């Protein structure tokens, strides 16, 4: 059965629009394709930031790891398996200080693994996470998809870069923006984002 990996990262819980729209999109894709959803809520279940033990572990064969290194690599190995098994990736994040939540960055640090999700070659690194579609849902108080705020949007370019590095180049973005511009503007932005999610799911 095909799999949708849903990654949410907002600490805002039920108030999070990035999580709401990303979940709505995943559910609509499930209804359209029959895929199962694997959900990683990085706010409810945060990952440990990488440390010296972890970085030592991923640079050696599993058989050569110390017990502490083996334990440090367990969750990363699981996250890599989830990513590789997924046909579709749905990522929800808010824009905080012009970039993604640190919880999402930590997930990326765990899944960007040389020899597993990318490899080094004489002509440069090559992504190994290929043949997948990704959707990014970005929520923000201001408008950063275009106009004066666009140069400050480092979240979407960063995610496009890192996903492309891993081999995922088919990426769609849904913006839920202008949420701080008053209730009416927020309502319109949320409705437009859910409409876009329905449109993308229908096209899947």
Round the mean pLDDT to the nearest integer and report it: 97
Low-confidence segments, given as residue ranges, are: none
DSSP E strands, number: 7
Rounded radius of gyration (Å) = 18 Å
- Give the CATH topology: Rossmann fold
What sort of overall outline do the alpha carbons produce when their principal axes are compared? globular
Helices, by number, come to 6
CATH class: Alpha Beta
Numbering strands along the chain, what is their spatial order in the largest sheet? 2-1-3-6-7
N-to-C span: 16 Å
Helices and strands, with pairings:
Blueprint: E1 3-8, H1 17-33, E2 36-41, H2 52-57, H3 67-85, E3 88-94, H4 102-111, E4 118-121, E5 124-127, E6 133-139, H5 155-166, E7 170-176, H6 183-203
Parallel strand pairs: 1-2, 1-3, 3-6, 6-7
Antiparallel strand pairs: 4-5
Helix pairs in contact: 1-6
Can you describe this structure?
- The chain has about 200 residues and is of the alpha/beta class.
- It has six helices and seven strands, in the order E-H-E-H-H-E-H-E-E-E-H-E-H.
- Strands 2-1-3-6-7 form a five-stranded parallel sheet, with helices on both faces.
- The longest helix has 21 residues.
- The model has no long low-confidence stretch (mean pLDDT about 95).
């Amino acid at each position: 059965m095909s799999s949708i990996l849903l990654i949410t990262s907002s600490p805002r819980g039920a108030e999070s629009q990035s999580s709401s729209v990303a979940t709505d999109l995943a559910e609509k894709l499930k209804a359209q394709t029959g895929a199962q959803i694997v959900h990683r809520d990085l706010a409810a279940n945060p990952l440990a930031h990488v440390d010296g033990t972890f970085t030592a572990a991923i640079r050696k064969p599993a058989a050569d790891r110390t017990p502490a290194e083996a334990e440090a690599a367990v969750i990363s190995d699981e996250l890599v398996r989830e990513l590789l098994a997924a046909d579709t990736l749905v990522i929800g994040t808010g824009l905080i200080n012009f970039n993604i939540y640190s919880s999402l960055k930590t997930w990326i640090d765990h899944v960007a693994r040389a020899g597993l999700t990318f490899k080094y070659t004489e002509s440069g690194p090559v992504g190994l996470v290929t043949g997948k579609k990704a959707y990014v849902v970005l929520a923000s108080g201001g408008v950063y998809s275009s106009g004066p705020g666009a140069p400050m949007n480092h979240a979407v370019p960063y995610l496009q870069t890192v996903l492309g590095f891993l081999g995922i180049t088919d990426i769609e973005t849904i913006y839920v923006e202008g949420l701080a511009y008053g209730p009416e503007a927020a309502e319109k932005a949320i409705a437009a984002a859910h409409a876009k999610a329905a449109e993308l799911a229908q096209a899947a």
